[in-house]
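== Sequence entry ==
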Amino acid sequence: MDISDLLTPDRVIARMKVASKKQALQELAKRAAAMTGLHERAVFEVLLEREKLGTTGVGHGIAIPHGKLPQLDRLYGMFARLETPIDFDAIDEQPVDLIFLLLAPESAGADHLKALARVSRLLRDRGFCEKLRGSASSDALYALLADAPTSHAA
C-alpha cells in the first residue's frame, strides 16, 4: 500500500492552526467530513472514542488518530503539519506537530491495519519527519509523502 492510495494533494495541510488536541481533532473531523461526505460530528466522535482507548500520539511529535465508520466505502487519509506543536497526551509526553488521520470502513480489518502500519513505519523515520517539518507548502508535503521510499512498505 502506497501513501498515495490514502492521500490526495487536497488532503494535505501545511500549516494547521490549533491550540489543543481537542481542537485538532475537531478541525480534522471538519475537513474529513468535507472529503468523505459524512457528518462532522460522527467523525469527531469516532476519533474521541479511539483516544479514550489510549492516545494516538505515538511519540517524536507524531500522532496518528484513526477510526472506523460504517458509512465509508474505502480508506481515507489526511496529513497536517501544525503551525505550533500541541500537547496530544503522547506516549513520550512530547508535543505533536505532525498528524496523519486515517479513516476506514468498519469492514476494512486487515486493510486498516496495513494502512496504520504503513503510516507508522513511514513516520518513525526521523530524517523523513525532518523533511516534512522543513517543507513550506502542501504541495511539497504531498510530494514527499506520495514519493515515500517503498522500504517502509507494510
Q: What stands out?
A: Residues 21-36 form the longest helix (16 residues). The chain has one domain: 3-147. The chain has a mean pLDDT of 93. Helices lie at 21-36, 40-53, 109-123, 126-133, 138-146.
